[in-house]
Amino acid sequence: MIDKTTQDASTFVSQVDSAFLFIFGVALLFLFAITAVLVYYIFRYRKSKNPKATHIEGSTKLEIIWTVIPTILVLVMFSYGWQGWKSQKEVPDDAMQIKAIARMWSFAFEYENGIVTDTLIVPKDRPVKLDLKAMDVIHSMYIPAFRVKQDMVPGKESYIWFESEREGNYEVFCAEYCGLRHSYMMSAVKVIPEVDFDKWMEENTVAIDENNEGTNKRLAGVSVLRKYGCNACHTVDGSKLVGPSYKGILGSTRTVITDGVEREVFGDEEYIRRSIMDPNADVVKGYDQGLMLSYKDQITEQEIKDLLEYFQSLSE
Fold this sequence. Notes:
6 helices, alpha+beta, five-stranded mixed sheet, Helix Hairpins, 316 residues, Immunoglobulin-like, Cytochrome Bc1 Complex, Chain D, domain 2
């Protein structure tokens, strides 16, 4: 459940809201003041009251007033904005580092110990720095409740940081149009007590240890899908999304379009590898070409094996 109470969601809330309310208040004040003066002069100098135009000389005093006051107000607005921007760029030395990865059309979060999730889980009252990385096109990470937003440009390093003061679940959006399913590119921040976070980290560190004989291969495959955002375009239940479903992918035949020619292919390890490394070589009939990018230089051999294990469980 998403928490709609955002007053203490992060340490930036009061600062950003104060700046917004001040600027909005000034704009509203001038709107009513200018409208009131406009209406007054319409009635005061209407034709029936002033049939002959009167020449009015300028007023130096008035010009100074309407120059100095707006200048002061603009400088105050600038001060609010500058202080807010500066505080959001000065990351505390003890901030926890998490890598936020964006791709069409999902977010993934990689922790320093190797855990990868599709939901950002962070401790309460502890600064967190997100190192932002876009894998394909321009995205933008936006956490409204925390009052933070930053574009994610491929090949360019960027970051945001925050410190949450309230436990709860908060929405994460992509705020930059990034293609067909941009509006579906959503995630969440889950803020939990620090003791619970440390426990969660410890449990998941054990689960992903390669030397742990009890590691569940099925969960390992799910983790790979989450890491690369595959579930944004594919399903496990056979339903159609942007791309074909994983269900029954191994051990069955599929009709694909290869170089404009329709043919049947058998779903085996070779087909899975080719679909990951060169996704536009064999496009399943009924789906569009060019929507999936190659993962040739990203996915590891172990991750492919984990995926094959998982796909096998879906085909049984």
